[in-house]
Specification:
With 428 residues, the chain is an alpha/beta fold. Helix content is 41%, strand content 19%. It binds beta-D-fucopyranose (FCB).
């Protein structure tokens, strides 16, 4: 079955180059998260002012406009949607009943997706929490684990007729490091390493319990698939001879990658998940102990002169996608979904090239035996990019945030990705 799956990632010659075909059941999708698109939200982000002076309200107002967003997905031709459900909307306190009106809105969203032939992957935690969880110590407090599992058990029971793909935690490493190490997410704490460790450990415990529960409960849609999403960044010294940069790269890898993977996939935890989600954007290289990325104050042009090719956020490293997928599957032997990949730029040609290169690397990994089941482009819409606000343009579909009606328009990148989804191939 596994061999049959991978052998269908094929390469063939076409008029102007090679065509990379994907297996027929490969799931082409896109994604968003509640705080970034919904608006009208009450969680720790509500009053957080981003670097552009704005907040997550009303974001893309997808809270009201989700039917229209689904129409955009149909126009794009995607078959999968990785979407979050916002805990703070559904429970007003520890172990409380689910808010029926809010639940009904999500059920309607799921029904409309189904009617459109789009498979949802539901993310249970994407960088946001109810205020009563935050007031109780957030994920530093082990009591949060039980409260989350209670929420998941109620939500899963309500959604089992509609959902079979579950993503427990999105990038616990990003959440814990931005909140407790570098002070970029609420509560904006810095260098609290013990808090970071506690948060990761508690999230991993909640992940394990949630996986068991979701699999036990099953789904009317078919076999349940569940996993968490790891943000994969490689850390490298810009000059191999610099001991400090090598040390920082080594420590970053230990803290952000190895420790998190051990917590979520070590000692028996691996067997509770059915897949590993990988969010892949690129890498970070250090020079004089500073990360060479645009969000650290370097211009893209200056970085390019140093051979560091970036979008508005990260250094791109398409070739690294192949090795990363191969290494992760060799080690953990779980099927993989690339749950996020995308680029932020207003240069659409750059984005198209970047996607082609990354998908080519993904395809090479599949031809080398990695079982990748799907790919979700980040993101459906331009949206609220956390600490950076609305300046980072990751969307397949543009949103005009200067117009109160928040009109959406298809971008060249949307047409380009839509073609790949419809062809089930790159380069046709
Ligand atoms: C990931 C997040 C996602 C978005 C992209 C650009 O780290 O999961 O919400 O911010 O980066």
């Amino acid at each position: 079955m596994f061999d049959a799956f991978i052998s269908m990632a094929t390469t063939s010659a076409a008029g102007n180059g090679r065509v990379l075909s994907f297996p027929p059941q490969f799931l082409w999708g896109t994604g968003t998260s509640p705080t970034q698109v919904e608006g009208h939200i009450t969680n720790e982000w509500t009053h957080h002012v981003a670097r552009d002076g704005r907040t997550c309200h009303p974001a893309c107002d997808s809270y009201h406009r989700y039917p229209e967003d689904i129409e955009w997905m149909v126009r794009l031709g995607v078959k999968g949607y990785r979407m979050g459900i916002e805990w703070s909307r559904l429970q007003a306190g520890p172990c409380g009943p689910l808010n029926q009106a809010e639940l009904a809105r999500y059920l309607d969203q799921l029904d409309r997706l189904q009617a459109a032939g789009i498979t949802p992957m539901v993310v249970l935690h994407h960088f946001s929490n109810p205020l009563w969880i935050i007031g109780n110590g957030g994920w530093e407090n082990p009591a949060t684990v039980g409260m989350f599992v209670d929420y998941v058990s109620k939500l899963a029971a309500a959604l089992r007729s509609r959902v079979r793909l579950w993503n427990t935690f999105n990038e616990p490493d990003t959440y814990a490091s931005c909140s407790y190490l570098i002070g970029e997410f609420p509560p904006e704490n810095k260098w609290r390493f013990l808090a970071y460790r506690r948060v990761i450990r508690n999230m991993a415990a909640a992940h394990v319990r949630s996986c068991r529960l979701l699999r036990q409960l099953g789904s009317e849609q078919g076999p349940v698939e569940v996993g968490f999403s790891k943000n994969w960044t490689s850390f490298v010294a810009y000059h191999g001879w610099s001991p400090w940069d090598r040390l920082i790269a080594f420590l970053s890898h230990e803290i952000f990658n190895r420790f998190v993977l051990r917590s979520f996939l070590g000692a028996g935890a691996r067997d509770v998940a059915t897949f590993l989600g990988v969010n892949y954007y690129g890498r970070v290289r250090y020079q004089h102990t500073r990360p060479l990325i645009p969000t650290f104050g370097f211009s893209r042009a200056r970085l390019a002169r140093m051979g560091v090719i970036c979008d508005d956020m990260f250094e791109r490293d398409p070739a690294g996608m192949e090795g990363t997928l191969l290494a992760l599957q060799t080690k953990y032997k779980l099927p993989i979904y690339v749950t996020e990949h995308g680029s932020a730029s207003t240069d659409e040609a750059f984005r198209e090239r970047d996607l082609t290169e990354n998908l080519s690397a993904l395809h090479r990994a599949m031809q080398r035996g990695v079982e990748v089941r799907g790919f979700f482009y980040w993101s459906l819409l331009d949206n609220f990019e956390w600490q950076f606000g609305y300046a980072k343009k990751f969307g397949l579909v543009a949103v005009d945030f200067t117009d109160p009606r928040l009109p959406r328009t298809m971008k060249p990148m949307g047409r380009f990705y839509g073609q790949i989804c419809r062809d089930n191939a790159v380069g046709r």
